[in-house]
UniProtKB/TrEMBL annotation:
<feature type="binding site">
    <location>
        <begin position="106"/>
        <end position="107"/>
    </location>
    <ligand>
        <name>pyridoxal 5'-phosphate</name>
    </ligand>
</feature>
<dbReference type="InterPro" id="IPR015424">
    <property type="entry name" value="PyrdxlP-dep_Trfase"/>
</dbReference>
<comment type="subunit">
    <text>Homodimer.</text>
</comment>
<keyword id="KW-0663">Pyridoxal phosphate</keyword>
<dbReference type="GO" id="GO:0030170">
    <property type="term" value="F:pyridoxal phosphate binding"/>
</dbReference>
<dbReference type="InterPro" id="IPR004723">
    <property type="entry name" value="AONS_Archaea/Proteobacteria"/>
</dbReference>
<dbReference type="InterPro" id="IPR050087">
    <property type="entry name" value="AON_synthase_class-II"/>
</dbReference>
<feature type="binding site">
    <location>
        <position position="19"/>
    </location>
    <ligand>
        <name>substrate</name>
    </ligand>
</feature>
<comment type="function">
    <text>Catalyzes the decarboxylative condensation of pimeloyl-[acyl-carrier protein] and L-alanine to produce 8-amino-7-oxononanoate (AON), [acyl-carrier protein], and carbon dioxide.</text>
</comment>
<feature type="binding site">
    <location>
        <position position="131"/>
    </location>
    <ligand>
        <name>substrate</name>
    </ligand>
</feature>
<comment type="pathway">
    <text>Cofactor biosynthesis; biotin biosynthesis.</text>
</comment>
<feature type="binding site">
    <location>
        <position position="204"/>
    </location>
    <ligand>
        <name>pyridoxal 5'-phosphate</name>
    </ligand>
</feature>
<protein>
    <recommendedName>
        <fullName>8-amino-7-oxononanoate synthase</fullName>
        <ecNumber>2.3.1.47</ecNumber>
    </recommendedName>
</protein>
<keyword id="KW-0093">Biotin biosynthesis</keyword>
<dbReference type="Pfam" id="PF00155">
    <property type="entry name" value="Aminotran_1_2"/>
</dbReference>
<dbReference type="InterPro" id="IPR015421">
    <property type="entry name" value="PyrdxlP-dep_Trfase_major"/>
</dbReference>
<dbReference type="InterPro" id="IPR015422">
    <property type="entry name" value="PyrdxlP-dep_Trfase_small"/>
</dbReference>
Length: 391
């Protein structure tokens, strides 16, 4: 027996699913240098343009000067420092919840919350389009794991009727590859019917959604009783790194006591928490970022519709153009790059087979003129790709 890695890699290439990492040689922003070339990027999750904000950079620098660079140890040993503590309090206040707990990544926050809440004999029910970290968490938990049809409360109900033990219903807030919103009021009512808990991962909603950037729960006006477990990530609209779980005092203490991905890992560098405190302040107070972003979203959707491009039903900065075939999606992305635009092609297994797409993302850092340039390039590349005009 041996590991035939070469054959495995060759098969991936043959299926047009081979992944390559573009090398970024500039800060995040609309204008980037990638693989040695200047490009206009429409693929970052820096939705509010905070990743390279001078005040956030300063907060990181000052934080490193004051608190050092490394977290040093896990939170329970000696890695929990004042900036972490202050950020947790600020995130609790921001989400209107009694407590928040900081994690180094969203992936770990999701593993932690699901595995600490359900285990053998329990049930975890997830939207079939949930982020990979939530699906992995469900599998790792050892609970009965089942996926309901996308955003379908009736499909959830059928599964709830067969559930055993404690039941956790888990959904993305904004679906990361489609950009649509979870139907939270309906999902929440269905979860409550059987006394299940609803967990929402709002990685892509915090920042762009809600009157104050409070994400999908603010958008729908839902509270702690509706969504007992709320996850946010800090590497997207917040522009920094890490994640948090917000909820009741008992929930947070349960995670501290039982969540292995929390207990057995080094805390994030405290300077990152200093930077996030600043970006949280900007996210809350600079409403013009959200307003500008919403104008760009409307402009892009109107322009794409005029070009006859097929968009998904997304009110968020995630505006995918579904192509279908992986090879065609790759070719479209390559042509765009030749025209000076970086837009990622997303292929299976990240998205279901036959739904490869260009994942266009917009940011408050883009200008209207840049969005118009993207639309013009999409029009030109589409013609090059499909002379009959079917994109
Ligand atoms: N949840 C969702 C919905 C995501 O899109 C992502 C990141 N792509 C994560 C969780 C993981 O967050 P992080 O990148 O901080 O690990």
């Amino acid at each position: 027996m041996s590991f035939d890695l070469a054959a495995r890699l060759a098969a991936r290439r043959a299926e047009h699913l081979y992944r390559q990492r573009p090398l970024l040689d500039s800060p995040q922003g609309p204008e980037v240098i990638v693989d040695g070339r200047p490009l206009l990027a429409f693929c970052s999750n820096d939705y509010l343009g905070l990743a390279s904000h001078p005040e956030v950079i300063c907060a990181l620098q000052d934080g490193a000067a004051r608190w050092g660079v490394g977290g040093g140890a896990s939170h329970l040993v000696i890695g929990h420092s004042t900036p972490h503590h202050e950020l947790e309090e600020a995130l609790a206040a921001f989400t209107g919840r009694p407590r928040a707990l900081l994690f180094s990544t969203g992936y770990m926050a999701n593993l932690a919350a699901v595995t600490a809440l359900v285990g053998q004999g329990d049930t975890v029910l997830e939207d079939r389009l949930n982020h990979a970290s939530l699906l992995d968490a469900g599998l790792l938990s050892g609970a009965r794991f089942s996926r309901y049809l996308h955003n379908d409360a009736a499909s959830l109900a059928a599964r709830q009727d067969k559930a055993t033990g404690n039941t956790l219903v888990v959904t993305d807030g904004v679906f990361s590859m489609d950009g649509d919103l979870a139907e939270l009021p309906a999902l929440c009512a269905e979860a409550k019917r059987k006394g299940a808990w609803l967990m929402v991962d709002d990685a892509h909603g915090f920042g762009p959604l809600g009157a104050h950037g409070g994400g999908i729960v603010e958008h729908f006006g839902l509270g702690l009783d509706d969504v007992p477990v709320l996850v946010g990530t800090l590497g997207k609209a917040f522009g920094t790194a890490g994640a948090f779980v917000a909820g009741s005092e008992a929930l947070i203490e349960t995670l501290i006591q039982f969540a292995r991905p929390y207990i057995y890992t080094t805390s994030q560098p405290p300077a990152v928490a200093c930077a996030t405190l600043k970006s949280l302040e900007l996210l809350r107070t600079e409403g013009w970022r959200r307003e500008h972003l919403n104008r760009l979203i409307a402009r892009f959707r109107a322009g794409a519709a005029e070009l006859g491009l097929t968009l998904m039903d997304s009110p968020t900065p995630i505006q995918p153009l579904v192509i279908g075939d992986s090879a065609r999606a790759m070719e479209f992305s390559r042509l765009l790059r030749e025209h000076g635009f970086l837009v990622g092609a997303i292929r299976p297994p990240t998205v279901p087979a036959g739904t490869a797409r260009l994942r266009v993302t917009l940011s408050a850092a883009h200008s209207e003129e840049q969005v118009d340039r993207l639309l013009a390039a999409l029009g030109e590349c589409r013609v090059l790709l499909a002379p009959e005009g079917d994109a």
